Prior knowledge:
CATH 2.40.50.100; six-stranded antiparallel beta barrel; 5 helices
Amino acid sequence: MRRRGVIVILAAAVLVAIGTGVWSFWPVGNKNIGFHTVSLRRGDLVATISATGTIEPEAAVDVGTQVAGVVIAFGKDKQGKEVNWGSEVDAGTVLARIDDSLYAAAVKTAEAQVKQAEANVPAAEANVLQQKANLLLATQNWERAQRLGPSDALAQSAYDQYQATYEVSKANLASAEAAVNQSKAALAAAKASLLTARINFDYCTIKSPVKGVIIDRRVNIGQTVVSSLSAPSLFLIASDLKRIQAWVSVNEADVGNITEGQPVTFTVDAFPGKVFHGKVGQVRLNATMTQNVVTYTIEVDTDNSDGKLLPYLTANAQFEIGRRKGVLLVPNAALRFSPKPNEIAPEAKQGSHGGRRNRGTEPGGERGTIWIGEGKFVRPLFVRAGLTDGAFTEVEGQRLAEGLPVVIGEGVKEPENAQSADRNPFAPQMPFRGNRQGQGQTEGNQQAQGQENQGQTAPPSGSGR
């Protein structure tokens, strides 16, 4: 019996909970479904493409070293201070010095080798003269021996000896002449070694190749630098920070709207509220792919005469792809609105369709639908959709006029004399239902309604997407 009583109590509790929930959500009072509308208005519209990038020097030079050694000192900048981050330098300014002891010794060794090679050349040339004299004597003896021939006056062995001496003298002269060429080549090699040694010695003094500002110093005194197949970078110098660029990554779907000379505005977090202006300088063709997203790098040239823009700041860029003045504007929510079949006026049902439209930017190229409220029904009005800034779209069409109310969504409409006592205070309030496109539609409707109430003359620029 006791167990049965517990079951009865639990069942009663469940029934009470269900009844409370049903009562909480049951429509109370005289409520009906209405439509939220905004007025079609005339204004200016700017369509842009949003993208991010970084501020980069127009030309940056990596200064490295081609020799290995220990950094023993830094040079002086224009102000006579030790070279550091932000130092202004001229072309040829000494940036750093590497210990040159070994390279100085190599120069001395190469100089000695050059002197030795220079001394060998005259000795080889003198040997050539000696061999020529020997050849002359051997030639004369051989000619006399040939006239006498082997006879009682000249023995066969003496005849053979003169002939051999003549042949050896010719060979010795050729060898002496080759030795001269060899000594001259050795002298040239010694001079080349000396030149290499002097160049390496000069590399111990690292100089700036350009006039500019040091963006980065990557070495300290006492640090050993090692040169290998690729020279280590010790300094990064921007040639001219008065001219600077923003390297912006643009999605492949938008890059077709980017052209050279196109106006661009951008902001940086370092200067909130300040808008910088520039122009597209170049569209780089080497696209990159990250997580299956293809982007292109766009170079935006801008003037930095005031020096505010610093390298590697994050830039939030807006590429202007179109501008309209004094056109009829409708919230994008109105073009996305799609009523239920029973909400369409009976005489307008034939031939009507939903308000979805394809993406487009030029007026006259896209067909869309907006809906006009007629009591508890809506009636379609076909328009040509043009440029859009992401929140508003330019529209053209017959029967369009400024102030025409267009539907942007559905909502619960209550009578004006509804009393607060008729309402359950604990029930969730749902004043706006929106259309069936989802939560993003509701947010767009609220944004459009708020801007309509403020009476703005032009919508804010947004993404051209």
